[in-house]
Amino acid sequence: MSAEQSSVNDEQNRRLREQYTEIAVLAGGLAHEIKNPLSTIRLNLGLLAEDFADAKSLREQRALQKIRLVESECQRLNDVLEDFLRFARVRDLRRTSVNLNNVLQEMIDFVAPQAEGKGIELVPYFHPNLPATSLDRELFKQAVLNLLINAQNAMPSGGQVVLQTQPTSAGVQLDVIDNGVGMDAETVAQIFRPFFSTRRDGSGLGLPTARKIIEAHNGTITVQSAVGTGTRFTIVLPAAT
Hints:
With about 240 residues, this protein is an alpha+beta fold. It has helices at about 5-50, 60-90, 100-115, 135-155, 185-190, 205-215, and strands spanning about 95-100, 120-125, 135, 160-165, 170-180, 220-225, 230-240. The protein folds into 2 domains: about 5-90, Orthogonal Bundle (Helix Hairpins); about 95-240, Histidine kinase-like ATPase, C-terminal domain (Heat Shock Protein 90, 2-Layer Sandwich), CATH 3.30.565.10.
């Protein structure tokens, strides 16, 4: 990458951060206003559940079921709120020059036990001679984790996820490929829209957050999918200067 192109990318990143700063501030304030009463509600629901823990009558048992249901919905609301904060929060990237293979192996080691419990195999195909790339290591891991979670959700009966790396003319490429249920063209066109989800309990923020993180690294993410065949996410990142 030329010095001129690097300067253009830095300017684009600066404008992107400025664009989202106000949203991030509003999101933080909104989160504070919601989380405080939500915590109070959850605390009192827990106390009510304790009061009905030894429910004997049918009426008390029904009351306990309703309490548990509201507890579950409160937890879901809290999870959506946390996902929204991750999506809206903007900070300067803490980049270091890394080997992408090493970062991905760390993610595989972290996710593999849970994936294996669902009958899902994570298969690495790492190119041995990747150029270094400049990443905020932990933030980029979050993007990859979101893609792996999406892949797991697409394989309710188990399957295989391939993580493949290769060099490109300007940097590195990562393909995350699953053999899950796949998506039709209409769904593919919407998956990066905030709050769009095909799952009832999904927040619809995982993939938009992943794209936002990747674009903050001057990278791109694209998707190919077919119903009944599976899905391929392709991430392209520039080499470290």
